[in-house]
Amino acid sequence: MAQSRREFLKRTAALSAASYIGMNLPYRKQNAALAADADSWHRGSCRLCGTGCRVELGVKNGKAVALRGVKDARTNFGYLCMKGMHFWKCMGHPDRLRTPLYRESKKDKFREISWEKALDIAAEKFADSVKKYGNDSVAYYGSGQALTEETYLFQKVFRGGLQTNNVEGNPRLCMASAVGGYLTSFGADEPIGGYADIEKAHCFFIIGSNTAEAHPVLFRRIMRRKLDNKDVKIINADPRISQTSRIADLHLQFDPGTDLALLNAMANVIIEEKLYDEKFLESYVTCKKGKKETVSFEEFKKFVADYTPEKAAAICRGNMTPDKIRQTARWFAGSKGTLSLWTMGINQRKRGVWANNLIHNLHILTGQLLTPGADSLSLTGQPNACGGVREGGGLCHILPGHRLVAKEKLRNQVEDAWGIPHGRIPPKPGYHTMALFSAVNEGKIKALWVNCTSPMQSLPNVDLYSKGMRREDVFMICSDIFPTLTTEAANLVLPAAFHFEKTGVYGCTERRSQLTLKAVNAPDGAMPEVWIVREWAKKLAEKMDDPVISKCVEPFEGLEPDFALPKAIWDEYSQKLTSGRDNDLRGATYTVLQKMPDGVQWPAPTEAYALTGGTVKKFVRGMDPLADTHAKDDKPYQFYGHAHDDGKLWLWLREQADPEEIPDKDYPFYLSTGRIVDHWHTMSMTGRIPELLRANPYAFVEVNPRDAAKLGIKPGDMVEVESRRGKNFLPAKVYEGPTEGMVFVYWHDQHPDRLINMVTKDGYDPGSKEPEFKICACRVKRISGPKPLKPYIV
Amino acid sequence: MPIGGFIVNAVPEDLEVAVAFLTAIPEVEIHGHDKGGNIVLVIDAPDSEHMQRVVKKINDCASVLTVGLTYLNVEDEADTIPAGADVTGIFHGGPASGSAG
Ligand code: SF4
Question: Does B29 contact A at CB distance below 8 Å?
Fold first, then answer.
């Protein structure tokens, strides 16, 4: 590259960075003669986490050549992380799947087939299964990374066409407990506030989240807030000291699974020291022992009185002291705006819903809700777990628009919107994820479609649940962009288009829907999923001789797949299925989404309103249009969520509850698992990007130095981590991260020796059905000194 | 040969230390800084992997809180996306994470 052009690009880079902080650089004007750094810039969302950062992809000669943050986006204000910077490399990557692959028997080798043939086979196998074994012998297992249009169309064809609610998705593994928590505490799913509270908060309570590594751009905002305001307090509560603890004023370290006691003890201190908001409680709150069992506030007080800071500190152990608990409660209650943030450390638990409830309890008690800087905000892991799966009907018990399958009236609304007969959607919810893969194991599911996810790696106790997917009598389709451990077990592999190679909407953590437009062509042979589903459904209708299946895709017939097709699907979903629902997206049309740098926060019933950005705070009159239309009285807050018919927030009496498995003499350590900054989930994308792979080529086990000394483990030694389910052999990192008595393993590695889900436990929350990835018992043993390792990516 | 624009957040009290640290890195050009600890810099590296290493190095500096990318040009690399990397080797148990941006 010519030197003058390099200088031009460097100045462009510096100007871009400086503009974010309002800094003037001496060379404002760029020399136009040097030509732009890209032919065109295409706005969209980052593919790699739930933060929803907005990016612009620079394209030159049909190829991605540059990436920049979108400065006006209220998600990231232009900032990106290193993982986000590299995702474009999946486009045009030599490993991309480019042709449908098929094999009759899983013992055979795959052979390349045409799309025509592939869709024929897919339709025939699903039709055969339904005819022979019934509607519930087929299932869809999707992803929080699929576009909303994709999830919506898949579930439409499965529910309305194939008449089964066996529609599930991997958000069950990460978000289901947050859904359960929001519904049972606030009466409606998804947070009341959002990221805008970060810049207004005075106290951050970060629990069960390594925000610095899992949501680095949000972490930057939190950190900036603290740097700019010295009075801001940050409390990090986690069994493990992580990058996030770097900026904490107080780090509470405790034994895994004991934090329900901590949260109850904080409630106790808040009551003892009269730090609660009596007026707020009187106006808006009901105390609950069970869904149908209402109790008085006096009873609630009595219940938490048992959780003295002394008792909780003894349960929690680690570095917990009664004084730290008191301090935390005082900061939480006394600040001018407290924002709680959490992710999988709270959700992936045997009592994940309860843990969510107990965080919400603290906000309800103190009235730290609905005002600037105050919110109880569950951070999403995947870019479209909220938008596509929670809102679009991607779980077995919910239909689009936060409707419950079990309610006839709501099923009928959906059937009417689709123009199909009443009764077509079955009344019984389908299998939740763990039940689904148990049913696959038992041979009850005969045809399974896995889209954009890899359950052969991501399920807990994965050896057990992989068995069914390997069965000869289970026909499995995988649609994906790269080979994965799951495509390896499939009969039919369908090559899909990647992000920016197709058009569609992602809905991130904060009720925000954002559009990504197609910017580059997919590799020849790879197709957008919406096209795949439509074409498959047409063949299915023929083979089943069922006009209702045709009806499901009729509105989309003949539309080109890059824009017109996803737009028509979004129009149907947003206009017909979210009307009158709390996630009202009628104003968030493609036209509006194309205009907005950062999309729209629902509810947004009209285009004019959506063009203001939508609703920053739900339930607040004057800020949320639905709070006005649903208002029952003059109060400023209106809790219109469909799950609470009393229109109140619910304060829950929830006991400390042990994890399903706790260490004993045979398995004396806690094992916890999580995500590393450079990798995304099962590494099928990030493991193919050399920069990211080299940064972290293998999973490793983190061991506390005191435990390492006891076990004779030195840094880099090979260590066996074994549970009642399986074992891993991993190199050790010895450092003051996990609390004593706990080891921590990253879960991205595909190598059978280092695939930690062979060790994790498949216990799950009885309410949310989310598995307890975060806690099980294991034993740890040194095997040898350091050994050379090879990365493994299928 | 990628070119990246970054905002580094330094602990405001340690701004001078951070600037000195960054000035000593050959791939880094500092284009400005302010009292709040914001430093505007450009990294010009032979390849993305090299850039990643530089970012990691900056992030490991005790005076630096975060490294935020705002712009990246990769036009030289766009044509040659490699299939994978041979990273067989020994894990020494040192800090392997922490390139949070
Ligand atoms: S924080 Fe998440 S969404 Fe933002 S750039 Fe990084 S990976 Fe992408």
Answer: yes
Which domain range does residue A771 map to? 669-784
Query: Based on the structure, what is the number of domains in chain A?
Result: 4
**Is residue A130 in some structural domain?**
yes
The span from the CA of A238 to the CA of A255, in Å, is: 9
Q: Other CB atoms closer than 10 Å to residue A294's CB: what's the count?
A: 14
A223-227, A354-358, A717-721: the lowest-pLDDT one: A223-227
Contacts (Cβ under 8 Å, ≥6 apart) of A604? A584, A585, A586, A587, A588, A610, A614, A615
CATH number assigned to the domain comprising residue B59: 3.30.70
Domain presence at residue B59: yes
Alpha helices in chain B (DSSP H): 15-23, 48-60
Q: Which helix (H) or strand (E) holds A167?
A: strand A167-169
In the reported structure, the alpha carbon of residue A76 is separated from the centroid of ligand 1 by a whole-number distance in angstroms of 8
Q: Are residues A61 and A143 in the same domain?
A: no
Cβ atoms of A183 and A643 closer than 8 Å: yes
A84 pLDDT band, cuts 50/70/90, is: confident
pLDDT in tens, A461-513: 999 999 999 999 999 999 999 999 999 999 999 999 999 999 999 999 999 99
Give the closest-approach CA distance of B16 to chain A in angstroms: 16
Give me the residue from A13, A227, A788 closest to B9, CB to CB: A227
pLDDT value at residue A709 = 97
Q: Which of A433, A439, A481 is nearest to A458 (CA)?
A: A433
Task: Categorize the per-residue pLDDT at B78 as very low, low, confident or very high, splitting at 50, 70 and 90.
Answer: low
The answer to whether A285 touches A252, Cβ cutoff 8 Å, is no
Contacts 24+ apart (CB under 8 A), A99-107: A99/A495, A99/A525, A100/A492, A100/A493, A100/A494, A100/A495, A100/A525, A101/A492, A101/A493, A102/A491, A102/A492, A102/A493, A103/A491, A104/A491, A105/A472, A106/A470, A106/A472, A106/A489, A106/A491, A107/A472
How many Cβ atoms are within 10 Å of A667's Cβ, its own excluded? 18
Give the end of a domain, one of A69, A90, A111: A90
Q: Are residues A412 and A371 in the same domain?
A: no
pLDDT in tens, A535-560: 999 999 999 999 999 999 999 999 99
Domain span at residue B56 reads 3-30+38-67
Residue B91 near chain A (CB below 8 Å): yes
Reported as a single tens digit per residue, the pLDDT across A202-222 is 999 999 999 988 898 999 899
List chain A residues with CB under 8 Å of B95: 733, 735
Task: Identify whether the C-beta of residue A508 lies closer than 8 Å to the C-beta of residue A514.
Answer: yes
**Euclidean distance between CA atoms A477 and A465, whole angstroms:** 17
Look at A223 and B99 and tell me if their CB atoms are within 8 Å: no
B89 found inside a domain: no
Classify the complex by whether its ipTM is higher than 0.85, answering yes or no: no
Instruction: Measure Cα distances from B39 to A21, A68, A291, A485 in Å.
Output: 9, 18, 53, 43
